[in-house]
Automatic annotation (TrEMBL):
Origin organism lineage: Bacteria, Bacillati, Actinomycetota, Actinomycetes, Geodermatophilales
The protein, known as: Uncharacterized protein
Membrane-spanning parts: 58-76, 83-104, 110-127, 148-166, 241-265, 277-299, 305-322, 334-358, 378-396, 408-431, 443-464, 476-496, 502-523
Tree of life domain: Bacteria
Record's keyword annotation contains Zinc: no
Keywords from the UniProt entry: Membrane, Transmembrane, Transmembrane helix
Length: 682
């Protein structure tokens, strides 16, 4: 039988050793022991070091403090698991600090938000009843079998990128990805650069996009020696792909821990032989299904922030799934801290994230626990619930009319069978009497609100617009992730009761769910289209004209130090219809690798955005008016570069060189695929 170990003391069950000093503030009594003194002094010292420029110590101290202070999560009892959880809590806390900074100290930098973060951790250390003995119970070992599924999913995610990281063509391979990604990819890189440069939010009415993920990523990069805005072109390219690999691994880990939680809940009343081996099979099944449909697809779509959003929500679900009724306050607090971080980047999910605990709390046993909860705990939960609405307030205050849920975007394929699978899962959980009541209620509370929300939005859009659009499709990815995990765990538990032998059960549990998911998602459009576009060369995917040659030329210019902000333009001439055209995402991506987030680069970026809207991914309006606008726009961008003291470069093919030189030679430097580039960057 599998069971959760719930021995550890938490905020809900305080111990009272005799060797403590107790400080009273009004009616609040706060015991102070050696552990709290160590945490408090470490936080203060690390903040002082941050102020003088030694920044990484504060991040490490906050993560270590989280390992000690966070409530127990049954499947994250190893040091690896608690470190993983603590990183996400730090990201959520820092977003709360950035929010306070925005309202109270809007012109300050990272030092202010770091100070606010330190204060939050100090308050948590004072209020949390934790002793050295508690820490020994919290962290039972360095790693456990519950860490394995996430490691397996992460390994599957990383496999296609291994060739990118070895050999001498790393930059060229990354350029192949960046040059064909959706525009979201460069937008996220730009937003991180802006947050690293300004070190605070700058929101304006009608020009709003949530930048919570970007500011916390910028803060961590700044503290951990990854100065994106001041790196060489090659260095920035490596940071660019590194961001996707890091956040992809984090989502993979979150999928693994959620799978461990679901597996333990489903298997509680079944005798499981070799549970560690079966958990590894679950990891393989989840990785095989989530890899092509979520993890790799997100790279092509440029969904860098959505890796974080989904990972954070899955960890929140894990905490709720494994939390005991005796620790209701600490479980709800951890859940709401995590969901706040996700909601600040994806406000659309706030109704679902609040509905999940609400559905659970409607159970009589939980209502009785809420009534018996101390008033200070109820107040704390109420405050955490209220702050969940901050993202909605920011959206209403600064969002424009074009930010509605019906907005168009790069996603056009909705997989309705994921709704059917979700409904079947809810039904199966509801009628399965072999799952204990509490685990069954929690599982339904996780799936049902999400399923209902997405179904209602899909029906609304089908009625109003005739199609399911970007935001609903993207939100449905979370339901797909939950479905993949639950299906994999249920199949594994069912197979564990069959006489197949250990090896037979392992392979059946690893393969069956992935095949079922692929069959469901393959109905309609090609489910691997994003994967084909991501690895164009390997998939023999048709590329835009001059795609490889343009990227190779950009790599040479970049490594020579001649790409400086947005000082380059890509352009080709078609003599058959006397028009100019280009796959402008290539130029946008290559220029973005030297974007510093400052005002000057912003001017050049804005000018090129106007060109990007005309060219996009190579689709060209060949009307005479549009062509004239495009020619004048490029000349205007060249003038911006000149005003900023920069060389403006137009990249083209040899056959187009003379025509482009005749048109733009007086305002820009013309280089072709055959031009020799001096390595000025050395």
């Amino acid at each position: 039988m599998l069971h959760f170990d719930e021995r550890t003391t938490s905020m809900d069950e305080p111990k009272a050793p005799a060797d403590r000093t107790t400080v009273s503030v009004g009616k609040l009594r706060m015991p102070i022991d050696k552990l709290k003194m160590i945490i408090g002094s470490s936080l203060i010292v690390s903040l002082l070091l941050y102020v003088v420029g030694i920044k990484f110590v504060l991040v490490a101290t906050c993560v270590a403090a989280g390992v000690v202070l966070l409530p127990p999560v049954a499947v994250m009892r190893s040091l690896v698991g608690r470190l993983f959880l603590s990183v996400f809590v730090l990201m959520g806390v820092f977003q709360a600090s950035a929010t306070i900074q925005f309202f109270a100290f809007p012109s300050t930098g990272f030092a202010a938000s770091a100070a606010i973060t330190t204060v939050i951790y100090l308050v948590a250390a004072l209020l949390t009843d934790r002793t050295t003995d508690d820490v020994r119970d919290l962290v039972t070992r360095f790693a456990s079998r519950h860490d394995v599924p996430g490691a397996v999913v992460a390994a599957i995610f990383l496999v296609p990128f291994v060739p990118f990281l070895i050999g001498n063509d790393t930059v060229a391979r990354v350029a192949q990805i960046g040059g064909g990604q959706a525009v979201d990819s460069t937008n996220h890189f730009a937003n991180i650069a802006q947050m690293m440069s300004g070190q605070h939010w700058v929101y304006a009415v009608g020009n709003y996009y949530p930048k919570s993920f970007h500011i916390v990523t910028a803060f961590l990069q700044d503290a951990l020696f990854v100065p994106q805005i001041s790196m060489s072109w090659r260095g920035a390219v490596l940071v660019y792909i590194g961001q996707y690999l890091v956040f992809g691994v984090l989502l993979a880990g979150a999928l693994g821990y959620f799978a461990s939680a679901v597996f333990a809940a489903v298997a509680q009343r079944y005798p499981i032989a070799r549970p560690g081996l079966l958990l590894s099979a679950v990891g393989l099944a989840v990785g095989a299904a989530a890899g092509p449909f979520l993890l790799w697809s997100f790279v092509h779509q440029g969904f860098l922030n959505y890796y974080y959003v989904m990972a954070t929500i899955l960890l929140a679900f894990t905490a709720l799934m494994t939390g005991s009724k005796e620790r209701l306050f600490s479980t709800l607090s951890l859940y709401l801290v995590l969901t706040f971080g996700a909601a600040m980047s994806w406000p659309l999910l706030i109704p679902v994230l609040l509905a999940t605990p609400f559905v659970l709390m409607c159970q009589r046993s939980y209502l009785d626990l809420l009534r018996a909860m101390p008033k200070r705990h109820l107040l704390g939960v109420a405050v955490l619930v209220v702050v969940q609405f901050i993202p909605i307030g920011l959206q209403l205050r600064y969002g424009g009319s074009d930010n509605g849920v019906n907005a168009l975007g790069g996603l056009t394929t909705f997989r309705p069978l994921s709704l059917l699978l979700g409904a079947l899962i809810v039904f199966g959980l509801a009628v399965n009497k072999n799952i204990d009541r509490d685990s069954r209620d929690k599982s339904i509370a996780l799936v049902l609100p999400l399923l209902t929300f997405i179904a209602l939005l899909a029906v609304m859009q089908l009625f109003l617009t005739g199609e399911v659009r970007y935001y609903v499709i993207k939100t449905a990815f979370l339901l797909e992730a939950v479905n993949i995990v639950i299906l994999s765990c249920v199949v594994a538990v069912v197979l564990s009761q069959m006489d197949l032998g250990a090896v037979g059960r392992f392979f059946a549990a690893a393969i069956t769910p992935a095949v079922a998911i692929f069959a469901l998602f393959a109905v309609g459009a090609n489910p691997l289209s994003d994967l084909r576009n991501l690895f164009r060369t390997e998939a023999n995917q048709v590329k835009p004209d001059f795609y490889d040659a343009d990227l190779a030329l950009y790599a040479r210019l970049g490594e020579a130090g001649r790409v400086d902000g947005f000082n380059t333009t890509l352009l080709h001439y078609n003599p058959l219809n006397d028009t100019y055209g280009a796959h402008m995402q290539t130029a946008r991506w290559a220029n973005m690798m030297q974007y510093d987030g400052g005002r000057e680069d912003g001017l050049a970026l804005y000018c090129q955005v106007m060109q990007y809207s005309k060219f996009g991914f190579g689709s060209v309006n060949d009307s005479e008016d549009m062509q004239r606008e495009m020619v004048q726009g490029i000349k205007d961008c060249a003038q911006v570069s000149k005003d900023l003291g920069r060389e403006h470069i137009i990249l083209t093919d040899p056959a187009s060189e003379q025509r482009i030189r005749d048109e733009f030679g007086d305002v820009a430097t013309i280089v072709t695929h055959e031009t020799r580039i001096e390595n000025d960057g050395e």
